[in-house]
Design brief:
35% strand; 5-stranded antiparallel beta sheet; mainly beta; 1 helix
Length: 114
């Protein structure tokens, strides 16, 4: 896998009192059933910042997907958290599977076949 991205669109309305979180981060469940940062988090280009032009958050999770493909970890639960959620009054509404908005969460996988 050359590149793996997760795109999380969100709903944002002009009349909302609370703006979306400035950034989010993703964790994974480990063997001890605890959540830990993805290895991509420490790479420097993880993403997770709110893009106000496209109303979404984009994450680079290439190392995480490669670890799953190599059977180093299981493909288990990912959890999304707001950065600074305990100290800010922001509200992020992600477009889920039942959202009436056309933009849904998606994974974009770019790979090379040998």
């Amino acid at each position: 896998v050359n590149k793996a991205e997760i795109i999380l669109p969100c709903e944002q309305y002009a009349y909302d009192k609370f703006s979306p979180s400035s950034s989010l981060f993703i964790t994974r469940k480990n063997l001890e059933n605890e959540y830990e940062f993805l290895p991509d988090f420490f790479e420097g280009n993880f993403g997770g910042q709110f893009n106000s032009l496209s109303n979404n958050y984009a994450f680079n999770i290439t190392r995480h997907v490669n670890e799953i493909m190599a059977d180093k970890i299981s493909n288990d639960t990912l959890k999304v958290f707001p950065a600074g959620g305990g100290i800010t009054a922001n509200r992020t509404i992600l477009n889920g599977i039942n959202s009436i908005n056309k933009n849904k969460a998606k994974a974009i996988i770019t790979y090379t076949k040998y």
